[in-house]
Design brief:
α7 links the parallel β5 and β6. It is built from 13 helices and 11 strands. α4 runs parallel beside α5. It is globular, with a radius of gyration of 20 Å. 47% of the residues are buried. Strands 2-8-7-6-5-3-4 form a 7-stranded mixed beta sheet, with helices on both faces. The chain has a two-stranded parallel ribbon with strand order 1-10. A two-stranded antiparallel ribbon has the order 9-11. The chain has 2 domains: 6-41 and 283-382, Aspartate Aminotransferase, domain 1; 43-281, Type I PLP-dependent aspartate aminotransferase-like (Major domain) (Aspartate Aminotransferase, domain 2), CATH 3.40.640.10. With 383 residues, the protein is an alpha/beta fold. Bound molecules: pyridoxal-5'-phosphate. Pyridoxal-5'-phosphate is lined by residues 34, 95-97, 121, 166, 170, 198, 200, 229, 231, 237, 242.
Length: 383
């Protein structure tokens, strides 16, 4: 009997599903899942109710509702002085995940190479492989998760077409500073690479850290495709509204893929997100304060338990070194914590293709209710 395509043999169930299943079986507190265990902004939920009642029950234009594209354009201008034409340069997608898939599919031919900075968000490599292209890892080295330009230079070949960067960075919580971004930008220009900049955590910043979109660096706008997600910004990951901003000729290619992958995205949700983006200036400080409180609480708790690491400046993740706690590698220690301590985390070695550095860490997600964080800390201490 005919079976699935040969290319599928390179894929397995994502680590997130595996960990969540184990967490349920062991009644463990789940700090593995990378999203909030509480709902996002109530005012935005009220707006979506209104939008549903107003109509908006039919397909939106395939590239996204004009209202939303205009509001995306407006916030890039207000926050970053970046100018994107809503008509030609912005495409609304089913979350950042579809944005990444449609973008990589639109840009890659078979056997092209893509430099991915590891640890990476797992959909990058899967989307690259589905295009028949090759992911070439370059490691962000602990403890600061810096990239060595010499290693970038070694990774580049005549087939290299794209570099993917994630800023602020999942799983490390790193917020890239200007000098580092400039190094990447210089490298991309030197080798004429396109850059996909995944900026879904652009508003999850702490301690005065600033987000610098890659496209704002000199000479980078024309070679950068910027991806973001309302799900992250409004703490409503289930809404799945994302977008890609890119020069017209690249956006056109992304749109051609997008129209056959999802065609168009939920209309009332797009209308609500457009209203949300109008109010970003009022909303973001409270959003950051809410997550800062969680970060500080959890970090202090972890410190008291003897985990030592630098406090992350962005995202809702902590990449916590485990070497002073165990001789086990990440996967085995994560299993031990689920079974014996009733706390689920993500072993980050699955976010690496080359380096073994991930085996010395676990990723904790602190986007959780206070009681969830308290239970996790007390389980880690007590059991
Ligand atoms: C770095 C990164 N990129 C993209 C995504 C996907 O975002 P979305 O839920 O909008 O598809 C995530 C979600 O966890 C992420 O962490």
């Amino acid at each position: 009997m005919k079976t699935a395509a040969h290319k599928m043999s390179q894929f397995k169930d994502s680590i997130f599903g595996v960990i969540s299943q184990l967490a349920r079986e062991n009644q463990a507190v789940n700090l593995g899942q990378g999203f909030p265990d509480f709902d996002g902004a109530q005012w935005l939920k009220d707006i979506v109710n209104q939008k549903v009642q107003e109509g908006h029950g039919q397909y939106a234009p395939f590239m996204g509702s004009l209202h939303l594209r205009e509001e995306i354009s407006s916030y890039y201008k207000r926050f970053y002085k970046l100018v994107y034409d809503p008509q030609q340069e912005i495409t609304v997608t089913v979350g950042a995940t579809e944005a990444l898939y449609s973008t990589l599919t639109a840009l890659l031919d078979r056997d092209d190479e893509v430099i991915v900075l590891e640890p990476f968000y797992d959909s990058y490599v899967a989307s690259i492989q589905l295009s028949g292209a090759k992911a070439v890892p370059v490691t962000m080295h602990a403890p600061d998760f810096t990239v060595d330009v010499g290693e970038l230079e070694k990774a580049v070949t005549s087939k290299t077409k794209i570099l993917i960067i994630n800023n602020p960075h999942n799983p490390t919580g790193k917020v890239w500073v200007r000098e580092e971004l400039q190094q990447i930008a210089h490298f991309a220009q030197k080798h004429d690479l396109l850059v996909i900049s995944d900026e879904v955590y652009e508003f999850l910043l702490f301690d005065g850290a600033t987000h610098i979109p890659m496209a704002t660096l000199d000479g980078m706008k024309e070679r950068t495709l910027t991806i973001s997600s309302a799900g992250k910004t409004f703490g409503l990951t289930g809404w799945k509204i994302g977008w890609v901003c890119a020069p017209e000729h690249l956006s056109r290619a992304v749109r051609l893929v997008h129209q056959y992958v999802s065609f168009s995205v939920s209309t009332p949700m797009q209308e609500a997100v457009a209203e949300g983006l109008k109010r970003l200036e009022g909303y973001v400080p409270g959003f950051q304060a809410q997550y800062k409180e969680k970060r500080d609480y959890f970090y202090e708790g972890m410190k008291k338990l003897g985990f030592t690491f630098a406090i992350p400046k962005g995202t809702y993740f902590m990449m916590v070194p485990i070497a002073n706690k165990t001789t086990k590698r990440d996967v085995d220690y994560a299993m031990e914590l689920i079974k014996n301590k009733k706390v689920a985390t993500v072993p980050p070695s699955s976010f690496y293709l080359k380096s073994k550095e991930g085996e010395g860490y676990l990723r904790f997600c602190f986007a959780k209710k206070q009681e969830t964080l308290e239970s996790a800390l007390s389980n880690l201490e007590r059991l």
